[in-house]
Design a protein that fits this description.
Length: 145
Amino acid sequence: MEAINKLKFFIVDDDIFCTNVYKQYLQNSHFEDVTCFTNGSDCLENLNQNPDIIFLDHNMDDMTGFEVLKKIKRYNPDIYIVMISAQESINTAVDALKYGAFDYMVKDATVCEKMQKVIERILKIKEEIRRSNPSTIQRILSIFL
């Protein structure tokens, strides 16, 4: 559980109410490193903080979620981005995945439960990657064992 709490989250949404709900939910789930941004530009300027997971609103005033998503993926393709939108459009969801989002969620009464499930999936993937790609030290040690 200790490593789970070490995850760094960015929440990017111009709706302050939603941002606060997501942040409170994550903190209640014992995730302590949560940074919120009300626009895509501020998020992009802070990517050097190396977030693990970004919950990104689709429809924002300064730039669209797709524009932010593409720039994040160019900066670091290993950041897990979950697009969140009030739109239940299949085309929007498909485009989000096409541009590199890990998942697409609709803002509704169960959005926080969906956030928890997507975090669990990401953690499983990160664990599988860690196990299948041993560190250099582990590879060197395996030669002698």
